[in-house]
Design brief:
With 413 residues, the protein is an alpha/beta fold. It has 2 domains: 3-140 and 277-412, EreA/ChaN-like  fold (3-Layer(aba) Sandwich); 151-241, no CATH class. The chain is built from 16 helices and 11 strands. The strands form 2 sheets. Strands 1, 2, 3, 4, 5, 6, 7, 8 and 11 form a 9-stranded mixed β-sheet that branches. Strands 9-10 form a two-stranded antiparallel ribbon. A hairpin with an 8-residue loop joins strand 9 and strand 10.
């Protein structure tokens, strides 16, 4: 039985620990249908950038909860920009054309990875569409270097079709398709470099077409100047993101991706949205401030914490039990974290309804659980990660139960 559909009321026990580590708690309850996130007013006071993490992309009820939280942050706390873990080109092209989206769902489906094309995210994107027609817009953008949807490729196809012959278009699109193949190859050096070279050739061909025909493209309005620049930027960053050798996809490749994602976020915050308050959606691993035990990669959140300091708030979010959709093998998996030493069990023991903890600054001489090594269940990161909560995050939150996302069609997976 689905968690959100079966419960009429969710009680969230909110424990806010003050900065002086006095362990003063505040308890909050709210109705699931009309959730009250007012505890965030005190927590986020003075924070310009709030990053909402998740221990897996495959939790449907968590997607719904985060969507409601984002609406609250926009309505009540004046956060103006929503940066999604989605392709820079896909999200930004979708936003540029949001007036053509009937209810916002098309914006979601054309810009997001398959594991986010769920019914649970429909309310958030309907809200984004509604707000886009008012002065109180919630600007939607992305920061990933990868291609997450169809918006970027379709716009590129339309531009090239109007200025070049079909064979050019076919070469570009075929080249772009090699990205996922190249990333997943672990056994064949020859196949890896074949697809890498094919991808790079497609990217270079697309960039040359854009550069050589810029005047015509803009004059004949095949694309707006903003769309033109988005396409070019996305192509250039996709090219940078594959600057690694065979066998390095999950080491050098991952680190490179996160450093480039950080550059995308920083550039947007500083140049496009210099006076705006920012919401970032990403995996716990992307938004964390410091790595866990045994992890030597510098993730996106490390760069953001260094760049923005106290303006940056990283919220790690976990689920205790339920079902998770694992996108890499397209399967649904039940889980229940009952082992001692896991953050899900620790938080669940404090409140079986749900809990949020605002973490104090790390102290070496303090023996509280949040200042010591703990495990977390994060399927995309191998299933079990070890970290010190007060070092890794500014706050943590537990959703007691979740089900898998509700996908509209098999193709969404």
């Amino acid at each position: 039985m689905r968690f959100f559909n079966s419960l009429l009321l969710l009680t969230i026990c909110v424990f806010i620990i003050s900065c002086n580590d006095s362990n003063q708690y505040k308890e909050i309850t709210y109705d699931v249908e009309n959730p009250d996130f007012s505890f965030l007013k005190e927590v986020l006071k003075g924070k310009r950038i709030v990053a909402l993490g998740e221990s897996s992309h495959g939790y449907g009820d968590l997607q719904l909860l985060k969507g409601k939280m984002i609406q609250y942050l926009h309505d009540e706390l004046d956060y103006d920009v929503f940066l999604m873990e989605a392709g820079y080109g896909d999200a930004k092209i979708s936003w540029e054309n949001i007036e053509h989206s009937d209810n916002g769902v098309e914006t979601k489906d054309y810009s997001l990875y398959g594991n986010f094309r769920s019914e649970e995210l429909n309310p958030l994107f309907k809200y984004i569409k509604e707000q886009s027609e008012t002065e109180n817009k919630l600007t939607y953008s992305g920061y990933d270097t990868q291609i997450s949807g169809d918006a970027f490729k379709l716009k590129l196809r339309n531009i090239i079709n109007k200025v070049e012959i079909q064979i050019i278009q076919d070469s570009v699109q075929s080249g772009l398709k090699s990205f996922n193949t190249m990333f997943q190859l672990r056994d064949s050096v020859e196949a890896f470099y074949y697809h890498k070279n094919k991808l790079l050739a497609g990217i270079d061909l697309a960039i040359s077409v854009l550069d050589d025909n810029k005047e015509e493209i803009l004059e004949k309005e095949f694309a707006s100047e903003q769309e033109f620049n988005i396409e070019l930027h996305a192509l250039e960053y996709l090219r940078k993101s594959v600057d690694y050798k065979f066998g390095e996809a999950y080491t050098v490749g991952l680190a490179l991706r996160d450093s480039l994602m950080a550059q995308n976020v920083i550039q947007q915050i500083k140049t496009e949205y210099p006076n705006k308050k920012i919401i970032i959606w990403g995996h716990n691993g992307h938004i964390e401030k410091i790595s866990g035990e045994g992890d030597n990669i510098k993730w996106m959140g490390h760069f953001l914490a260094e760049e923005f300091g106290k303006d940056y708030y990283a919220l790690g979010i976990y689920c205790k039990k339920g079902g998770v959709f694992t996108h890499w093998n397209k399967t649904n998996k039940p889980f229940d974290i009952t082992q001692d030493g896991f953050i899900e069990k620790t938080l669940f023991d404090k409140s079986q309804d749900g809990i949020f903890v605002n973490l104090p600054k790390y102290r070496l001489d303090n023996t509280e659980w949040y200042h010591n090594q703990i495990f977390g269940y994060e399927p995309e990161a191998g299933g079990k990660v070890s970290f010190i909560p007060s070092k890794r995050f500014d706050g943590v939150m537990l959703l007691p139960e979740t089900d898998i996302p509700t996908f509209i069609s098999r193709s969404s997976r």
